[in-house]
Amino acid sequence: MRLDYQMTGPEDAPVVLLGSSLGTTREMWAPQLEPLSERFRVIAFDHRGHGGSEVPPGPYSIEDLGGDVVELLNSLLVERASYVGISLGGAVGLWLAENAPDRFHRFVLMCPPAYPAAGAQVWTDRAAQVRAEGTQSIVDATLGRWFLPEFKDIEPVREQLLNTSDEGYASCCEALGAMDLRDELAEITAPVLLITAESDTSIPPETVVPLASQIPGAQLEIIENAAHLVSYSHPEVINHLLLAHLS
Ligand SMILES: O=C(O)CC1=CCC(=O)O1
Fold first, then answer.
1. Other CB atoms closer than 10 Å to residue 243's CB: what's the count?
2. Which residue intervals define the domain AB hydrolase-1 in the entry (predicted)?
3. Around 178, how many Cα atoms within 13 Å sit in the side-chain half-sphere?
């Protein structure tokens, strides 16, 4: 599987991977790129089915999405990296922490779903809707969940959602609907920073906070006055937390 990615920062610096949310591309990490690239070799990638990455026919599984990241590390001859992910990218991070512990130093997982808390049917229905009517049919509702009304810089994210392959988006919905990463949380050994947003209606804090007591040693931060796509809407506080945890 060929994943598209962008590498920035000093060639010999420790590697940090950035995994984005459902329906977005590595462009969503624009607010993080400069500060992180001062200290790290940053690899922002597109999940399969997204951005410039390949779009194989679905359904995909969380194993597929996590395996792609391990393959990316292999292809770049990176033995070990740290990983930052949000939402779908956070779920992929949980899978990596559980299944590829020897390839990672530290994790920052923002608003990560560990299982389909609202039921698998929600994801099956969303996949069917997007296959039938395209991502344009879910854009306005998605932006309404992802940002508080006062946050205005939403057009770049709208463009990413609109440009995402319908098959890629739907197939990742199927991965989210079929996964349950809760059983192995206690076996995670890497240092994990979990971040949740106080007003996240997509992956509500009630579903993220319990993960912190199940992952040994996990640190938890709750960002006030923020909705789901918190790294994009609240870069100052998030970048501060990222640099503190990854350094
Ligand atoms: O689409 C949403 O609101 C929720 C979501 C789950 C995974 C993701 O990336 O977004």
1. 15
2. 14-126
3. 15
- 233-246, pLDDT tens digit by residue? 999 999 999 999 99
**Whole-Å CA distances, 217 to 12, 190, 195, 220:** 29, 9, 14, 10
Residue 128: which CATH number?
A: 3.40.50.1820
State the amino acid at position 15 in one-letter form. Answer: V
pTM of the full predicted structure? 0.98
Read off the pLDDT of residues 74-105 as tens digits, 9 standing for 90 and up: 999 999 999 999 999 999 999 999 999 999 99
Domain that holds residue 173: 5-246
Q: Which of 20, 47, 111, 231 to mutate to test the pocket of ligand 1 (most atoms within 8 A of CB)?
A: 111
Instruction: Say which amino acid occupies 30.
Output: A
Query: For a pLDDT cut of 90, what percent of the chain falls above it?
Result: 100
Residue of 24, 135, 203 best suited for mutating to test ligand 1, as the one with most atoms within 8 Å of CB: 203
